[in-house]
Amino acid sequence: MKRFLGILFLLVIVAAGVCAYFFPGIPYKYKCTHDLELTDSIWENIPENIPPLPADYSDYSNFGVRITAWNDMEPVRTNDKTKAKWLNSDENCWIGITEERLSESDDFLDRTGITHEALDRYCKAVEKTTPENQYEFTKLVASLTMDDFDIHDFKNSKTFYLLMKTKNELYLGSKMFYCADGVGFRGYFYTKHAPEANQGYMIIYPDRDKRTRYTIEISVFDYYQAFAMAESIKLT
Length: 236
Known about the structure:
Helix content: 25-40%
Number of strands: 11
Distance between the termini: 82 Å
Radius of gyration: 23 Å
Structural class: alpha+beta
Strand order of the largest sheet: 1-7-8-9-10-6-5-4
Oligomer: single chain
């Protein structure tokens, strides 16, 4: 019996060694599937064949950005020179446009625990384009699934886990991110639930200025209407 147990123990040790050698990413796969709530892709394109906005809707613009929306809104004074806002008389429909200047020291990997070298190493291993800015990083993180896990490399499995951890910490409150690239800019649209109304956010990175980012915020009552508003955005 002792001999049998000894052989069994040896086999277990050998099996563990084989797994550790050929599948070093197993510990991080376990952490992804047991510690994280969100491991699916939350990146999609805006649906096709969206009903057009009514002809009597109006355009609202500031900071070189224009959006079409409800026609009964008036500008609201704000104390922030980087933000413009419009609101209707019932205060249930609004639009806000914010212009943000990005510092040269801004790094989209801050607070992720991931280095640029580790990210590049992982992306090359799984045949993905290495992100060079916040837009590309958001698109990568939002679109990752467990199919992109590299179980054969310990360092890459750790990087993947940190990317998924970032998705859960930053983007879990949003059901989906929608690619909404336009003429002269790249952007994405997402919504968040709020007590008074769902809020939609369009994040825009203009091609003409790599150090500027726009955030367009709208109240959302109908998702298809919100998609149409997001697609109406133009740079002026």
